[in-house]
Design brief:
Number of domains: 2
Helix content: 55-70%
Structural class: mainly alpha
Strand order of the largest sheet: 1-2-4-3
Number of helices: 27
Distance between the termini: 25 Å
Strand content: under 5%
Radius of gyration: 27 Å
C-alpha cells in the first residue's frame, strides 16, 4: 500500500470512526432509557410522564457525551502531540545532550526525518517506564511529538531503535496520528458516564463513612447505576480502538522494514518485548487513553479488545520461521542478563558511519520512482538521511537544537552576501529582536558560510523542534521577519523562496495545527490554471531558453492533461507566482496529488538533469502538498 492509498485508507477509517461513535452513542442512550423506563414503571408513572422523562434523559445523555468529546478534542487540538506526551508524564529531551542513550535517540529520529523530508518532531521519553514502547502523537507532522520509554533506550540496540522509530514515523507520515487523537476525544465522550458514575460512587462511599450516610445513599446508588451503564461505553470504546488500530500496526511494521532496509531491527525489538519481564506495559493510569497509539500493547487486554495484533504474529510477519518456543528461550536467557542496547551497539559495530560525502548538485530523477517513495522511503533514502546528518558540523547542529540560538541561525541562512543588503537585513533584525540577536545572527552566518548549499534546507528542518519552543508571538514575529529578509534586495532567489515557504508552512501548522491556506476541495479540472502556473514556473526556472522551457512545460502538462493545448505563459513574478498556486493545489486529494508530483518531476527532468534549485523546488512543492519525498540528491 503506497502513501496515497494509505491516505485514502485513513480517510475511510475516519468515516468508520464517526459511524462507530454514532452506534456507541445510540447504544448508551438506549441503555440509559431502558433503565429510566424500568425505574419509572415501578413507580406507576403514566405513559406521558415516561415519554417526557425519556426525552429529557436522552437529551442530557447526548449533551454529556458530546460536550466531553468536544472539550477533549479542543484541549488536544491546542496542545497537539506535546499535550499527549505530557499527559503521560513524559520528559522533553534537554537542549544540550550528554547522555549517550538520548544522543543516539535524537540522531536516529533526525536521520529518519531527513530521509523522509518530515519535520523533526519534538522528542520525549518516559524515564520511569522499564517496558519497551513508543508512540507518535499530533494533528500534523509539523506539530508531532515522539516519545520512547526508558526501557527502549536501555534495552534496544541502534538497529532496533531505528525499527521502532521508523514504525512511529509511518504513523506520522501517513496521517494515522490525527485519527488517533480524534479517537481519544471520541473515547472520552462515550466513557463519560462511567467516569461520572465512579466519581459519584466515590463521593457516596466517602459520605457513608460520615454522619450523613442516609443523604449519601442516593449518590451512591446513582453512581453505581451510571457505572454499570457506563461500562457499555467502555465496551464500545475498546472495540472501536481494536477495530481501527490492529491493521494499522501491521502496515506500520511493513513501512518500518521498508524504511530501515532490514527486518532484524524491528523483529529484534518485538522479541525483546516478548522475552523481557517488563514487556511493553506502561504504569501510567492514563495508559488506556493512548493504548491505540503505542508501539506495543501498553496494558493487558483480552484478545477481543487488543489494540495490536498478537506479538508472535507480528514477529512471524518479519521472520516466518520464528516460534513461541523461541521467545521462551530468549526469556530464559535474559532473566539473568538483560540486554544492554549501547553495549550491543559496540559489539555489533552499529555506530552511525561518519564518512561519505554528498552527491553532486545535479542529479537524475525518475518521476515514477519519486512518486513511489512519497511517504515510503527506500533503503538508499535512509542512508542518504544518515549521510546528510553526518555532514552537518556539530557547532551548527548545536545551534539548531538550541531554542535560544535557533532564531539567529534561521536568519543567518538568509543573510545576503552583498554588504549593503546584509546591513539592511541586520537593521531589520535589530528593530524586532535587538542587538544581541543581530550579533548572534552574524556569528551563525559566518559558520554557515562554508556549508555545502545542499545542506541548507536540512539545517532548517533540524531547527523546527527548537523553534517550536519559542512562544507563538515570537514565531509569528520570525515568520514576518523572514519575509522581510527574503525581500530585502527586491528580488527572491529560489532558495530564499523555498526556505521561506517551508518555514512558513511548518511553523504555521505547528502553532495553529492546520494548513495555512483555507483550501476548498479541488480536482484536477478546477485546478488546471494553478497547475499550469506551477509547471510554468518550474519550466522557466530550470531552462534558460524559450524552446527548452516550452519542452519542459509540455512534458509536465501532458502528464496531467494529455489532450489539453495549454500554452506556456510568462510568469514575470518568478517563483512568487506560486503564492496563488498553493491554496489551490493544497485542496487536491489522493491520486490527484500523485499526478502533480509526477508532472513536476517530468517538467524538471525534461532536459535530463535536475539542478539544486530544481530539487529544492520539488521538495517545496511536495512539502506544501504534504507529500513527504526523500532526499533528491
Amino acid at each position: 500500500m503506497n502513501f496515497f492509498e494509505r491516505q485514502r485508507e485513513v480517510r475511510s477509517a475516519s468515516k468508520r470512526l464517526v459511524l462507530l461513535f454514532a452506534a456507541a452513542v445510540l447504544a448508551i442512550t438506549a441503555a440509559v432509557n431502558i433503565a429510566v423506563i424500568g425505574a419509572t414503571l415501578s413507580q406507576g408513572a403514566t405513559v406521558d410522564q415516561i415519554v417526557g422523562l425519556v426525552i429529557v434523559v436522552s437529551a442530557l445523555t447526548l449533551v454529556l457525551i458530546g460536550t466531553v468529546s468536544g472539550v477533549k478534542l479542543l484541549m488536544l487540538r491546542h496542545g497537539g502531540g506535546v499535550a499527549v506526551a505530557e499527559s503521560l508524564g513524559a520528559v522533553r529531551l534537554p537542549d544540550h545532550l550528554t547522555d549517550p542513550q538520548l544522543k543516539r535517540y535524537r540522531n536516529v529520529v533526525e536521520e529518519i526525518s531527513i530521509a523522509s523530508s518530515t519535520p523533526v518532531p519534538v522528542l520525549f521519553f518516559l524515564p520511569d517506564e522499564p517496558g519497551i514502547n513508543a508512540f507518535a502523537a499530533g494533528y500534523t507532522p509539523a506539530d508531532a511529538a515522539v516519545c520512547v520509554t526508558q526501557g527502549s533506550l536501555d534495552r534496544l540496540n541502534r538497529d532496533e531503535l531505528q525499527g521502532v522509530i521508523a514504525h512511529e514515523f509511518s504513523h506520522i507520515v501517513n496521517g494515522d496520528m490525527r485519527l488517533s487523537i480524534r479517537l481519544i476525544g471520541v473515547l472520552a465522550g462515550i466513557t463519560a458516564l462511567a467516569v461520572v458514575g465512579r466519581i459519584l460512587l466515590q463521593s457516596g462511599a466517602g459520605s457513608r463513612r460520615s454522619d450523613d450516610s442516609k443523604g449519601a445513599l442516593p449518590f451512591w446508588a446513582l453512581g453505581l447505576i451510571l457505572m454499570i451503564l457506563g461500562w457499555i461505553g467502555v465496551f464500545f470504546g475498546r472495540l472501536i480502538k481494536a477495530a481501527i488500530s490492529r491493521q494499522r500496526e501491521y502496515l506500520a511494521d511493513a513501512s518500518a522494514v521498508q524504511f530501515t532496509r532490514q527486518t532484524t531491527g524491528l523483529a529484534g525489538a518485538l522479541k525483546k518485548i516478548g522475552g523481557l519481564d517488563a514487556g511493553s506495559k506502561l504504569h501510567s493510569p492514563r495508559t488506556e487513553n493512548v493504548s491505540h497509539m503505542l508501539f506495543g500493547e501498553g496494558m493487558n487486554f483480552s484478545a477481543m479488545y487488543a489494540t495490536h495484533p498478537p506479538l508472535i504474529a507480528r514477529i512471524q510477519e518479519l521472520e516466518p520461521g520464528f516460534t513461541v518456543e523461541g521467545l521462551d528461550r530468549l526469556h530464559s536467557q535474559w532473566q539473568s542478563a538483560p540486554p544492554n542496547g549501547l553495549a550491543e551497539d559496540a559489539a555489533l559495530g552499529l555506530a552511525a558511519p561518519q564518512d561519505g560525502g554528498l552527491a553532486p548538485q545535479q542529479v537524475r530523477l525518475n518521476a515514477d520512482a519519486v512518486v513511489a517513495t512519497v511517504g515510503s522511503p527506500k533503503p538508499d533514502d535512509y542512508e542518504s538521511g544518515t549521510r546528510i546528518l553526518n555532514q552537518i558540523p556539530d557547532e551548527l547542529a548545536d545551534l539548531a537544537h538550541n531554542p535560544n540560538a535557533v532564531i539567529p541561525l534561521m536568519f543567518g541562512l538568509l543573510l545576503d552576501r552583498d554588504a549593503n543588503i546584509r546591513n539592511a537585513q541586520l537593521t531589520m533584525i535589530g528593530q524586532t529582536f535587538g542587538n544581541q540577536v543581530v550579533a548572534n545572527t552574524m556569528t551563525a552566518a559566518n559558520q554557515l558560510a562554508a556549508l555545502d548549499p545542499q545542506l541548507r534546507l536540512a539545517i532548517a528542518e533540524l531547527s523546527f523542534p527548537a523553534m517550536r519552543r519559542r512562544t507563538p508571538d515570537e514565531i509569528r514575529s520570525v515568520l514576518s521577519l523572514v519575509g522581510q529578509l527574503v525581500n530585502a534586495d527586491g528580488k527572491v532567489s529560489v532558495f530564499e523562496y523555498c526556505l521561506g515557504t517551508l518555514v512558513y508552512v511548518g511553523l504555521h501548522e505547528a502553532v495553529n495545527f492546520t494548513s495555512p491556506w483555507k483550501s476548498r476541495r479541488q480536482n484536477l479540472g478546477s485546478a488546471q490554471n494553478a497547475v499550469a502556473c506551477l509547471l510554468a514556473v518550474l519550466a522557466i526556472t530550470g531552462n534558460r531558453d524559450q524552446q527548452s522551457a516550452e519542452r519542459a512545460f509540455r512534458s509536465g502538462i501532458s502528464t496531467i492533461y494529455p489532450n489539453a493545448q495549454l500554452p506556456l505563459l510568462p510568469v514575470p513574478q518568478g517563483v512568487l507566482a506560486l503564492e496563488a498556486v498553493w491554496p489551490v493545489v493544497d485542496g487536491l486529494q489522493g491520486n490527484d496529488k500523485a499526478l502533480i508530483v509526477e508532472a513536476v518531476v517530468n517538467t524538471v527532468m525534461a532536459d535530463g538533469i535536475a539542478t539544486l534549485d530544481e530539487t529544492e523546488l520539488v521538495r517545496t512543492v511536495c512539502g506544501v502538498l504534504h507529500c513527504p519525498v526523500p532526499p533528491l540528491n
